[in-house]
Every structure is written in structure tokens, then in C-alpha cells.
Amino acid sequence: MTTTPARPPELPARASEPVVRVSCVRHVYPDRTQVHLCGLDFVVERGQRVVMLGPNGCGKTTLLFHILGLLEPQEGEVAVFGVNPARHWNRIRERVGVLLQNVDEQIIAPTVWDDVSFSPRNYGYADAEVERMTREALERVGVAHLRDKVCHYLSGGERRKVALAGALALEPELLVLDEPFEGLDPASRADLVDLLNHLHREHGVTMVMATHDVNVVKAMADVVYVLVGGGEIVAHGSPEQIFRDPDLLRSSNIEPPVLAELFAHLETMGVALGRPLSLDDAARAIVAWGDRNARRVAPTATAASPRPKTESGELRFDFADDAADGDDEKPARPRPPRAPRAVPGDRS
Ligand SMILES: Nc1ncnc2c1ncn2[C@@H]1O[C@H](COP(=O)(O)OP(=O)(O)OP(=O)(O)O)[C@@H](O)[C@H]1O
Ligand SMILES: [Mg+2]
């Protein structure tokens, strides 16, 4: 009979120390491919959600492998919870949950239950604890129904969820996630965003993530790091700061989120509504803009009829008026005369 083990002895990391620091790391693979993760230091503070963006092959996975101690830098420094992970992984591994980009590399047991319970069993937790930890991890990720399934037969998305359940089983303080949304359907993707944000909010879990899915970044990131080819770390900032810089995005081969593109495009049309990145913020910006227009067009409008309507009953918005309003908005552009609307069947 096994017993519940104590966590590893207290580590030297002080509360004020970053959870992760990667400073100018150089790694040369055996075939001489060189990745030089230099430029800015990559720093993750306790409780932060940090997302890494960059083109294919720029070195995101290489950077994560250094954080996980799977690679040792030939130059530069890596510290996780205050220790060198390549040398002292045993001292921190129970505090770190991992989802690799290639999940097949981490699913090792024949069945889902065996796989997700592997770490708790391996750390010598009591049977009842192993049962609880495994069940809760499977439930959190929404794959409890797969517990007896043979891993080999899982679909791609199921495989990723099972691997994530394995990463969560030990209730880690730091989650390292490489392309966690790859292959997930929209509902599963939204569920995963909710789950990760819940872990962050309720349990203070720190997260480092590489993704190409720019549309989740606003919902998922406190800080964004941008890498370019070769591994240079060229920028970091809030999602708003990063997505406001089209030159930066172009140089890093990053497609801006749909909302960022839409609102940038509206700006070029003379409708400056800011750069909201979430649906909620976008809806609020549009409603506020509509209300401003309503007040301007019909100053006597009441709460019962807050916005003026056209003859056909549609709400009326005046683009040119709005664009002239506000400090950072572009000057109004004259509107071309509108061509009369064709009536179906009318060929005159
Ligand atoms: N084991 C390896 N041997 C040789 N070269 C490698 C190895 N692993 C990665 N590389 C190379 O290192 C560079 C960085 O790869 P990495 O996987 O870190 O990129 P990435 O930013 O994660 O890309 P992606 O967005 O496609 O996941 C690439 O040029 C890749 O070909
Ligand atoms: Mg990668």
C-alpha cells in the first residue's frame, strides 16, 4: 500500500522571483540548425498567462523545451522556480504540467485511465488519491467518458484532451502548453479557454503557451511575446499593444485577429471605434458609437426611442459625423453620393 508523499522540499525561488526566466539562449541541434532565443528576456511572473506568437520554425517549441529541461542551452540561462531545469528537473517537475505539441510523445500508457493516473501513481500517492486526482482531471477536461478507451484509438482532439488531463492530474502551479488548441473543434476550444482561465483565476496557475490561434489571445493572455525567424524575441506587451502594431505582425508573419483587422479597416473608412479584441468589447464599442450618433442626429431622442430610424424603420447611423468625433479618430471623409437602390425586376 502506498502513501501520499510530501511535496518536494521548498525551493530557493522567492515569491518575488519570476517563475520562468530565459535569457539569450542558443541551441544548436545535431544537424546544425541553430535557434538563438535572444533579444528580449523571456520572463513569466507568478500567476501570469504568457502567450508566445511567431512563425513556424522560429523556435517556440525549442524555448518551451528549455523551460522543461528537455534541452540544455549551449549559451544563455534558463531558470524555472529559481533552478536550472535541465540540471534539477526532479526538484520542480511535480509543480509543472506539460502539454507537448506532439501529444503522441507524452501519451505512454495503453488506456486513458492508465495514462492520466501515471504521474500520481509514479509519485506514490495513495490509491484513493490517485483515483480522485485522475477522475477530477478527466472531468475537468470533459473526457471522463473515455477513461477505459485504448489511447491508440483516440481521435486527434481526444488525444490532446487526454494529454491535458495528464498534465493537470498533479494540480501543477505552472502549465506549459504547446499549441493546446490545435485540432480542437470550436466548442472544445471555447471549453479549453474557459478551463484554463478558471485554473488561472481560482488556483492562480501560471501559464506559458505557444499558439498560432491569435483569436484566443485576448481571452487567454496577460502578456504576449513575439518571436521572428531564427528565434529573436522582438516584442512583448499586452494583446492590445501587440495587435495595434501592423508592422510588427507582418514582420513576424502573424495574422491579426479578425476583430483587430475589422476595426482597423473601419478606421480607414473613417469610423474609429478603438481596437476592441473581444466580442463583448466590440459590441460595447458599436453600441456606444450608435448611441453617440443617435444623440447627435436627434438631440431630443428619449430613452424610449434612443436612436433615430430611417423611413424603412432601420436604425440610422451617421459614419461621417462619428469619425469627426474623438481625439484619435481620423477626419471624416465626404461620403460619395449614394446610387439609387435597384428594385428587383426593375430594369429601367
Ligand atoms: N530535433 C531537431 N533537430 C534538428 N532541427 C530541429 C529539431 N527540432 C527543431 N528543429 C529546428 O529548429 C527550428 C525551431 O523549431 P521549433 O519546433 O522550435 O519551431 P516552432 O516555432 O515551435 O514552430 P511551429 O510553429 O511550427 O511549431 C526549426 O528550424 C526546426 O526545423
Ligand atoms: Mg512548435
UniProtKB/TrEMBL annotation:
Where does the UniProt annotation locate this protein? Cell membrane
Q: Supply the alphabetized keyword list.
A: ATP-binding, Cell membrane, Membrane, Nucleotide-binding, Translocase, Transport
Where is the ABC transporter domain positioned along the sequence? Answer: 20-255
Query: Compositionally biased, Basic and acidic residues: which spans?
Result: 308-319
What PROSITE patterns is this protein classified in?
A: ABC_TRANSPORTER_1 (PS00211), ABC_TRANSPORTER_2 (PS50893)
Q: What is its main location?
A: membrane
Q: What GO annotations for molecular function exist for this entry?
A: ATP binding; ATP hydrolysis activity; ATPase-coupled transmembrane transporter activity
Region of interest: Disordered: 297-348
Q: Which InterPro entries match?
A: AAA+_ATPase, ABC_transporter-like_ATP-bd, ABC_transporter-like_CS, ABC_transpr_CbiO/EcfA_su, ECF_ABC_transporter_ATP-bd, P-loop_NTPase
Q: Name the Pfam families on file.
A: ABC_tran
Taken from the UniProt entry, a GO cellular component term is:
ATP-binding cassette (ABC) transporter complex
What PANTHER family would the database entry show? ENERGY-COUPLING FACTOR TRANSPORTER ATP-BINDING PROTEIN ECFA1, HEAVY METAL TRANSPORTER
Q: Which family does it belong to?
A: Belongs to the ABC transporter superfamily.
User: What protein am I looking at?
Assistant: Energy-coupling factor ABC transporter ATP-binding protein
The organism's taxonomic lineage, starting at the top: Bacteria, Candidatus Eiseniibacteriota
